[in-house]
Amino acid sequence: MNLESIPLQAFLIVSSALFCIGIWGLLNSRNAVRVLMSIELMLNAVNINLMAFSSYIDNNLIQGQVFTIFVITVAAAEAAVGLAILLSLYRNRVTVDMESFNLLKW
Amino acid sequence: MSIAITTQFICFTVLSLVVIIGALGVVLLESIVYSAFLLGGVFMSVAGLYLLLNASFVAAAQVLVYVGAVNVLIIFAIMLVNKKEDLKPINDIKSRRVISTSICLTLLSLLIRVDLTNVWNLSSPQNSIGEESTIRIGEHLFSDYLLPFEVASVLLLMAMIGAIVLARRDVMSKDISTGLPVDQELIEKSSEPLLTNKN
Fold it and tell me: A104 or B42: which carries more pLDDT confidence?
C-alpha cells in the first residue's frame, strides 16, 4: 500500500461506527445517565466527521473546525441542562430507570 | 504534515481502536462508573484524532470542554443519583434487543457503504494551511461567524440559568402534589415517591 496520508474513508468509518454504537446505547440503556453518555458519543461521531471533511475537502478555509467548536459549545450546554433535568427527575421519582419515566406515554 | 506516514498510521489505528472499544465499553459495561471513566478515555482519543487532522485548537477545546467539564459533570451526576436498585424486568426485552441491534447494524452497513462507494472531491494537500488553523479559526469567529459566536454566548447563559433553576432544591413548605408539609431536612429522602402512584 503506497499512500500519501490516511484515507478520508478511515475517519468516516470510525465516525460511523461510533455513531451506531451511540444509537444502540441510546435505545438499550435503562440508566438515564448512560443515555446522556450515548448522546455525547453520537455528538463526538458527528464532530469527527466534520473535522475529517474540513481537513480533506475544505483544507484552506476549515469551516468544519468552526462548526465543530459550535457543536462542542452546544454539547456542553446540553449536558448541563440534561443532567439538571435528570437530578430533578430523580428527586421526583427516586429512580433513574428509563422504563419508569412514562408520564408522556399514550 | 510533519509526522512520518507510518507513525501516522500507527497512531490512527491505536486511537480508533481505543475509540471503538471504549465506546462499546461505555454502552455495554454493567457498572456506570466504569462507563463514565471509559467515556473520558474516548474523549481523549477523539482529541488525538483531531491532532492527526492538524487541528490543535479543536483538540485542546475537546480536552478542556469534554474531559474537563462534561465528563466531570457526568461523574458528579452519577455520584448524586447512584442508588442500587433492582430494575423491573421487561417482558419483551429479547425482541427489543434484536430489533434495535439489527437497526443499528443496518444503519452502520449503509453508512460504511456510502463512505466507501462515494467519490469524494478531495482538495489538493498543498492548499492546506496546516498549523495556521488556529489563526484561521479566529478570523472566522470574528468575521463571517460572528453572529453564531454571539448567539452561542447567549445559549450558554440560558443553559446556565436553566440548569440552576432545574436543579435547585425546592424550599416550599407544602408539597405541590400531596399537600403534606415537607420535612426540609429530609428533602432528599422523601418517604414516598411523589408521582409513582399516578399512572
Answer: B42
In a domain, A104, yes or no: no
Question: For B87, what's the count of Cα atoms within 13 Å in the CB-facing half-sphere?
Answer: 15
Grid look-up 451506531 returns: A20
Give the pTM: 0.86
Angle in degrees, CA A46, A49, A69, rounded to 5: 65
User: At A84, which CATH number?
Assistant: 1.10.287.3510
Beta-carbon-side half-sphere exposure of residue A77 (alpha carbons within 13 Å): 17
Nearest to A59 among B90, B123, B159 (CB): B123
All residues of chain B having their beta carbon less than 8 Å from the beta carbon of residue A64 are none
In this complex, is the C-beta atom of B57 within 8 Å of any C-beta atom belonging to chain A? yes
Residue identified by cell 439489527 is B102
Does residue A57 belong to any structural domain of this protein? yes
Q: Which residue range is the domain that position A35 belongs to?
A: 8-94
pLDDT score of B139 more than 80: yes
Distance CA B125, CA B144 (A): 24
CB atoms within 10 A of CB A36: 23
Separation CA A51–CA B50 (nearest Å) = 7
Q: Would A34 be classed as within a structural domain? A: yes
Please indicate, yes or no, if residue A41 is contained in any of the structural domains.
Answer: yes
CB atoms within 10 A of CB A22: 24
Q: pLDDT of B90-125, one tens digit each?
A: 778 889 999 999 999 999 999 999 999 999 888 877
ipTM over 0.95: no
Taking one residue from A and the other from B, the number of pairs with CB-CB distance under 8 angstroms is 254
Task: Name beta bridge partners: A31.
Answer: A97
Number of domains in chain A: 1
Summary mean pLDDT of chain B: 85
pLDDT, tens digit, 9 for 90 and up, residues B55-94? 999 999 999 999 999 999 999 999 888 777 777 777 788 8
